[in-house]
Amino acid sequence: MTIDVAGTTVKRPAALGLFERYLTIWVALCIVAGITLGQWIPEPFHALGDMTFADVNLPVAVLVWLMIVPMLLKIDLKALGQVREHWRGIGVTLFINWAIKPFSMALLGWFFIGWLFRDYLPADQIDSYIAGLILLAAAPCTAMVFVWSHLVEGEPHFTLSQVALNDTIMVFAFAPIVGLLLGLSAIIVPWDTLILSVVLYIVVPVIVAQLWRSHLLRSGAETLAHTLKALGPVSLVALLATLVLLFGFQGERIIDQPLVIALLAVPILIQVYMNAGVAYLLNRKVGAAWCVAGPSALIGASNFFELAVATAIALFGFQSGAALATVVGVLIEVPVMLSVVRIVNSSKTWYERGPAVKARPGA
């Protein structure tokens, strides 16, 4: 199936690919591989960890670019012109993404990690775990939402315009929100590294991706589609390589305390289902079409975990609790989001019985 955006016909994702469908399994295998290799041959990991410039790890920076740029290549910023067509869904999603999600995650982190589970976690990593959760929720997902949207029969123009708008806002809002919430958590904010991370992992990739996209479209939409297909596995392979490095450093701590991952998953799970549910209900309340409410709920619930992992490593290091917390988000992302997809699809009849939905013009 194809969609036409700003005069350009592009292929719509057909379904989850092999890598995406089994992402949780690949992540689990990378955890095992990283822990094993980190114990057997620690020297290469330490050498890679020492390759830094201005507190940014260079191997990770390269891997993050390989993760992020192909994803941003899918985004057509010209779709911002279509924002007004779906103002109800756009308004709800922006409210969830930027006014609710980062702050609700901070509250959940403070409650569960900072208080309820405190006695079961390493005392010297509590603040770092909370920082990782904040980073995970501070940026909405960019790429996988196209797949989620397709699986709930989402309105493709809404999804594209919403993601383009979120990417634009992220350039300006990510650092201030992260800085504010880390400060409220009494965590020292390395502003120079945070700003450098935003420039390195958001601003520059957005510019490069848009220039590259324009160049490819000069040769036709099929050239862009072919390039996106070829680059698809690159992003996930780069993510998995980053995880091997991360767990190569984290391995000893994880072996000693496997309960940490399960406890970190609790606020992440609550946050995903809560934000998806609130977004879905608000869309029903304001009368948005079901094909808009579905992707709105999924965009409101999912996270840009690639950016979160990279920023956590840049700010706190490979061996930090922050880096580990963001990886837990990667571990549970796919199965949790697929469960949200099933909930949205099974509730279509109930959703369309909503008074505001039935009263919507054209309904």
Question: Could you name the key traits of this structure?
Answer:
globular; Na+/H+ antiporter like fold; 363 residues; two-stranded antiparallel sheet; 3% strand; 16 helices; 4 strands; mainly alpha; 75% helix
Description of the molecule:
With 363 residues, this protein is mainly α. The chain has one domain (78-347): Na+/H+ antiporter like fold. Helices cover 75% and strands 3% of the residues. The protein is built from 16 helices and four strands. The chain has helices spanning 18-21, 23-40, 42-49, 58-72, 87-116, 126-137, 144-151, 156-184, 191-217, 221-256, 259-286, 290-301, 305-316, 321-346, 348-352, 355-358; strands at 2-5, 8-11, 52-53, 56-57. A hairpin with a 2-residue loop joins strand 3 (52-53) and strand 4 (56-57). Helix 5 packs antiparallel against helix 6 (126-137) and helix 13 runs antiparallel to helix 14 (321-346). Residues 1-13 have low confidence and may be disordered.
What is the structure about, briefly put?
It is built from 16 helices and four strands. The protein is mostly helical and 363 residues long. The chain has one domain: Na+/H+ antiporter like fold (Up-down Bundle).
Taking all Cα atoms into account, the compactness measure Rg is: 20 Å
Main β sheet profile: 2 strands, antiparallel
Oligomer: single chain
Write down the overall mean pLDDT: 84
Beta-strand share of residues: under 5%
What proportion of the residues is helical, as a percent range?
Answer: over 70%
- Number of helical regions: 16
| Shape by Cα distribution | globular
CATH class descriptor name: Mainly Alpha
Derived structural class: mainly alpha
Return residue spans where pLDDT drops below 50 for at least 5 consecutive residues: 1-13
Quick one: how many beta strands? 4
- Fold-level CATH name: Na+/H+ antiporter like fold
Just name the CATH architecture: Up-down Bundle
